[in-house]
Amino acid sequence: MAKNKILNWTKTILPAVGIGILASLLINKFGLGSIVDKYNDTISWLDDNIFEKFFGASVSKLLLLIGATIVFYWIMIKGKNKIIVKLEQFAKTTSNIYDDTLIEKIKNIGPFFYLIITLFISTKVVGMSGGILYNIISVAAIFFIILNITKLTDTIIAFFLSHKKGTDGKREVDLTIKNLINIIVKGFLWIIAFFVIFDALGVNLTGLVAGAGVTAVIFGFALQNVMSDVFSSVSIYFDQPFKVGDYVSVGTDTGTVSKIGFKSTRIKTLQGEELTISNKDLTAERIRNFRKMTRRRVSFDLGVTYNTTAKQMKTLPKVIEKIAETVEHLEFSRSHFTTFADHSLVIKTVYFINSRNYETYLDAQQEMNLKIMTTFEEMGVEFAFPTQTIHIEK
User: Domain spans of the chain?
Assistant: First the structure.
């Protein structure tokens, strides 16, 4: 066995040594060494005058950059596919649609984005810095990273804002506030990208930052009232004192909220006109919202004349209770003979109308009143009104 191994090694090594010796003889015989030297000199000149100057790397580094890019690109694509599979498995366990939308957007990111990112990573690995090629790759990487993040912000913001549920049990997102936050976030991201790109290009940002600060202060003073309304709209969204479709009372005005904008909120009043109130003023007012009112309480005093007998006064509260039981949406609470007033015997009645709809409330109250009038007439009970009886002695 040992002899066979030695023979195998000998068969492998001897031809290689022979080829090397033959190559050396040919180079010395025909002057090929000078050709190799000229080739090396040419590559060195190209490195010094072109590649190092403009690309910031030698030919060997550029070849290494291409190789590293191919390797990292393959790793990134394989890793992305595996991560997407895991995310899709996780998305199946959730009830919201936002993770599915986010995964779909990640899947739609084109291969050019991954190529730019792997090129940027490869420049760091091979030690490239400076030069046109490095600057182009750095700027492109920053641009495409911010571009793809902004494409995902719609879904991410919608997910974090979807904390409340609608009548169908599904999560709701207020489009007005979502668009506002989306604009702010995207603007902030592009401002960051702007400064990072200029910093990567070696531009001194001290003066630029100072100028931007002064400009921001000027715009801040100029748009003070507008921005107060905008931030008030954000406050309205998160505090949720009302939403579109709610019937509200603001000061002396009442109506249905028709739109919540960045600067103002519009309310359609019962008279039919549209009332526009700035969000800043609206947040400073006391607002009565009837949306969460599931029923309306009605309390009234009913006065009958002193001609009414005690027996009748005893039965009248029960009569009112029976009438209440026949009216739709009405829930009886109590009815009692409470007061001997100047002009009447007072029966105090309380009931609830199980609807926040104003027309339903009026219809039920009207039906209740008419049935009381009809029943009292049939019983011969008269309603009292302010009267005076004057006794004149002769």
Answer: 59-222, 241-289, 296-379
